[in-house]
Amino acid sequence: MSRFPANPERRPSVVTGASSGIGEAAARALAAQGHPVVLGARRVEEMEATAAEIRAGGGEAHVVPLDLGNPESPAAFAAEAADLLGEIEIVVANAAMNQSGSMLTTEPDDFDRTLEVNVQGNHRLLQALLPAMIERRRGDVVIVTSDVVARPRPSMIAYVSSKWGLEGYVRTLQMELEGTGVRSTILRPGPTLTGMGMDWDPDETMAVLEEWQSWGLARHSNFMTPEGVAQGVLAVVSLPRGTHVTSIELHPEAPITKGSS
User: Fold this and answer.
1) Of the residues 159, 167, 182, 226, which is catalytic?
2) Catalytic: 169?
3) Using an 8 Å Cβ cutoff, are 122 and 142 in contact?
4) pLDDT tens by residue, 143-161
5) Beta strands 139-144 and 61-65: pairing type?
6) Residue 41 burial (CB count, 10 A)
7) Domain regions of the chain by residue span
């Protein structure tokens, strides 16, 4: 018999970066499993549309504005989420800032802003949400990083640095949470069809992609869907207690080649 009590069927969840991409897909996937969810991001209108569709399908969804670059926002978000749903069981920390730029072209203020959002913002969020989970001795925290940690890309120096720092943060967090009943997982996705980077200058984007290819960082043209990555989130939080996935790395499957005749 397991020494760990089972997780409740209804697990109130929060998802950051939920206005599009992986965050939106994760919120939909959790709601489809019967978990009430709070969507957090800066783009409220997009989240409201998603939440309305979740509710129309019989799920429970709420929208709370969140800006990880605003020092006051994470605590306010956490407090309102708890007011709406009660004790938070699942945290999917997906929100991130990305920008192109090399060491020579990235201004220090822009570098600082990326680290402020991607590392410090998540720290503030988790400081607001985890104490209650630790006291309850139960919960799942999934932090979305990036395969740039294992395979750095040029012309993304601030983003790569922030994701390296975030993974170091989570590795340390896992040690500090050991024995508390709270599981913390790194979810490291490879190339995924999301809106991140879509606001870059098109010419700049093409130059960056060509540079990546010169380093062998684009073996094939396939990208994962956000919905596929969201299934990774579900897999992690659905495991029975007593099993801890410390990290999971997802990559797009290569196109199927034709067999020889």
Assistant:
1) 159
2) no
3) no
4) 999 999 999 888 889 999 9
5) unpaired
6) 26
7) 13-249
CA separation for the pair 73, 82 (Å, rounded): 14
Give mean pLDDT, residues 203-216. 65
Its pTM stands at: 0.90
Q: Give the pLDDT mean for 80-84.
A: 98
pLDDT at 4: 86
Can you spell out the DSSP letters for the chain? Answer: --SSPPPPS---EEEESTTSHHHHHHHHHHHHTT--EEEEES-HHHHHHHHHHHHHTT--EEEEE--TTSTTHHHHHHHHHHHHHSS--EEEE-------B-TTTS-HHHHHHHHIIIIIHHHHHHHHHHHHHHHHT-EEEEEE--TTTTS--TTBHHHHHHHHHHHHHHHHHHHHHTTTTEEEEEEEE-SB-SSTTTTS-HHHHHHHHHHHHHTT--SSS--B-HHHHHHHHHHHHHSPTT----EEEE-PPPPPPPPP-
Q: Using pLDDT thresholds of 50, 70 and 90, give the confidence band for residue 242.
A: very high
Give the class (CATH, top level) of 13-249. Answer: alpha beta
The pLDDT tens digits of the residues spanning 191-209 come to 887 655 555 566 666 666 6
| Both structure tokens of 17 | 């970066």
CB 167 within 8 A of CB 146: no
